[in-house]
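My current task is to audit a protein record that another person submitted. I have pasted the whole thing underneath without changing anything:
***
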Amino acid sequence: MEVGVYKDGTITLYGNHVDRPTLAKRLRKEEQADKGRAIVLKSKDGATRSQLADLREFLVLNKIPNVTIVTTLNAAADEGESEDNFIARPVYSR
């Protein structure tokens, strides 16, 4: 399940804008993410790793343990030159 995170703080689920509390609620209810389904936070339009990490922490605190962050691989991709240079880095919960 992919969640888009944008530079301006916008979050999307299924291409629709959602706020953090609604995202957590829907991921638990509709996607059973609280039971271990993988959630991928993907940087869109220049979202920073810290924005992704903050959202990941919020989701983990809301009982969604299996969240992976996908960021751009290099600075050129951060400048919007290429979205093909993404790398997934699993982040494990305690």
Notes: The CA atoms of residues 9 and 51 lie 8 Å apart. The mean pLDDT is 84. The beta strands are 2-6, 11-13, 16-18, 39-44, 67-72, 86-90.
